[in-house]
Each structure stands twice: as C-alpha cells, then as structure tokens.
Amino acid sequence: MSKVKLAVIGAGRQCTKSLMPGIPYIETLDLVAVCDLQQELAERNARNFGARAAYTDIEKMLAEARPEACMVVGPPQMHLDIGLRVLEAGCHLFVEKPTAPTVEGARKLAELSVKKGLVGQVGHMMRHAGPVRIAEELSKSEGFGKLLSVESKYTTWPTGALPADSGWGNSDEDWSYMLVQGGHPIDLLRHFLGEVARVSAFRCHGQKNAKVYQATLEGQDGRVGFLNLQDSFNGWYTGLELVGDGKAVVRVDDLGRVTYRTGKRMNEAARAFWGNDTQVWEPHHTLSAWERTGYGNQLRHFADCILNKKAPYPSLVDGWKNLVVARAILDSIAQRKTIEAPQETLAV
Ligand SMILES: NC(=O)c1ccc[n+]([C@@H]2O[C@H](COP(=O)([O-])OP(=O)(O)OC[C@H]3O[C@@H](n4cnc5c(N)ncnc54)[C@H](O)[C@@H]3O)[C@@H](O)[C@H]2O)c1
Q1: Where are the alpha helices (DSSP H) in the chain?
Q2: Closest ligand 1 atom, CA of 125?
Q3: Are residues 122 and 170 in the same domain?
Q4: Same domain, 141 and 249
Q5: 118 and 157 share a domain?
Q6: Mutate to test the pocket of ligand 1, among 34, 37, 292 (most ligand atoms within 8 A of CB)
Q7: Do residues 34 and 143 both lie within one domain?
Q8: What CATH number corresponds to the domain at position 48?
Q9: Can you give the pTM of this predicted structure?
Q10: How far does the centroid of ligand 1 lie from the alpha carbon of residue 202, in Å?
C-alpha cells in the first residue's frame, strides 16, 4: 500500500494528546520524523508514536528526513511562518487551527497552497467526527429533503485576551476567542451552509471574560444558520442541528449522540398519542477520542487526498474563510446592524 511520508512539527499538548495517537493506526501514513524546539518533546513523541528520527531544527529535518507532508501544531504565528516554509519546500501541509493570527495571514497560506498545487488542510476536525458524518449522510438521504437551516452550538471556557508575545498575534479578547474557539463552530456551520452572505450578531459580556455571541447567518443560496457561542462555562460541549423540508431534523450532541426525527410513528400505541418518535445512535464506549471526534479521521482524509490527488476539506481556504466570517460577526456586533460578509477570492 502507498504511504505518505509525514513529519510532525510541534510536539506539545494538542499534538501529543489528540493528533499523534491516531497516526500508528493510519496505514496510509509513514511517520518519518518529529520536530520540536524542545528536544525531549521531539524524542518522546518520536519514541511513543513510532517515528524514525527526532529533530529540533526544521531545516535539518526537511533536508534529512525528506517528508512529503508535514503536520504543523503550535501557536498560529508558527502555523503561518512554518506553514509557508513547508509549502515552499514542496510538502503538503496539515496545520492546526487557526492557520494564522490574522485574516490576511490565513489568506497568504491558502494562496500559497493553491499556487503550489499542494494539499493544504486545517485541523477543524468536527467535520470528520463519526457522528457528524452520520448526520451528514442522513441530511443527504431522500426523506430529509432540502436542508433549510444549520445550528451550530459551542460551549467552552472563558477566553481572555492572549498576550502579544504568545504567538497568537496582538489580539483583543473577542479576536482571541475567535482564534482559540470560534473557528470550530463556524467551520462546522460553513460545512453545511456553504458560503455566508449576511451576518447579524449580538454579544453579551459577563464577569471575568464570560461572554456569549449569537449570530444569525444567511448563506449565499438563502439557507439560514445560527451560531450559539457560549464562552462562559468551565467545560466543553457542542451541538449541531440540521433541519430539512422533508419533515426531518437531525441533531448531534457533544460529537456523540445522533438523534433523527422524521415524524414516523414507531407502532400503533405510539400512533395513538402525541409524541416524538426518534431514532438514536450512540458511540460505543470503547471508541477512543481520536476515533470519535474526527482527530484521526481528518488525518486519514489528509493522506487520502495526497495519495489520490483529491481536494481536502476543510482546506486552508476554509481556514481563511472561517476567519473572514469570524471578523464579520465582530463587525456586525460593533456596528449593531446586519452586514454583508465580504466575498473575497484568492489572488491565484
Ligand atoms: N483542533 C482542536 O480541537 C485543538 C485543540 C487544542 C489546541 N489546538 C491547537 O493546537 C495548537 C497547539 O496547541 P498546544 O496546546 O499543543 O500548544 P503547546 O504550546 O503545548 O505546543 C506547541 C509546541 O510547538 C513547539 N514549537 C513552537 N515553535 C516551534 C518551532 N519553530 N519549531 C518546532 N517546534 C516549535 C513548542 O516547543 C511546543 O512544544 C494551537 O494552535 C491550538 O489552537 C487545536
């Protein structure tokens, strides 16, 4: 079987806990190297996940390990700087979110991947989560009808403004939230809604960085979306709801339970009463986090796109457009009105 020679750059928390555990199980990936400025982290992850070599210097790694693809996982300024370098070196790129600290930076990275004809993918893994894939297939089934609306709900810990020297850009509290958290629910919404035409958003602030953002969005084809972003709770949970015009609604809670409502009655007894009959799918308790959440599936998809010359999703263009929508949400809040989302195109 053909394999993609992959190098990992940045062996911190996210890489170690969520991304690398899936790699030994992905038969289309051949892990050639791990690189981190901290030698012990590079060596630890090379040893634990089966890489042939560990490096602290990216140039040395590119020259010696000669990877075909790199996975870059660090602060967003590193995503941009090393992402550009990796693409310049002719390697396909998988980069964690956000792809850059600014909309302009994200655009630059997207442009280079397109110009070079290389696979560029961003780690908004929720599109690839098993339960989301189940919901997506249901939303394309005959009984579901036309998709009318998408609701994406995301609840996380309060995010404060990130320090200027942290590699997250000189970001205020709102933009820090969009970089750290908001990109995920926006990406999931765009996966189903497509390009966003208009945005109307509100924000309410509480104590100690607690806040909520609620936004209604209109897609270019008239379908509607709702983002319910709650940066207020000491934990993480998510919700996705898709409404079709074929009397069907599908919901995914916490990247776990999938609920499908079609209005069909289960049996005679159920037909005799008002009630909601539903079909439910739940993940098996033995599934690991990288299997259920999409962390593993997204890397399998990355390898598949390289080997079979397919366009990846979410691409670096998506990573950029998610930040364009995030900025439009904040602009709508600041201007207290519905705004037209910028319809920018890449200069390639
Ligand atoms: N998709 C998700 O669900 C999700 C969840 C958490 C974090 N993340 C993203 O993962 C990224 C990393 O977060 P983290 O918590 O793992 O950070 P971290 O600080 O734990 O890890 C970053 C690592 O990168 C290394 N590094 C920095 N510059 C480098 C360079 N030039 N060359 C080589 N190595 C370098 C650091 O030494 C460090 O080990 C963030 O951008 C974050 O947004 C994504």
Answers
A1: 13-14, 39-49, 58-65, 76-88, 103-116, 130-139, 173-177, 183-193, 268-271, 289-292, 295-307, 316-335
A2: 1
A3: no
A4: yes
A5: no
A6: 37
A7: no
A8: 3.40.50.720
A9: 0.97
A10: 31
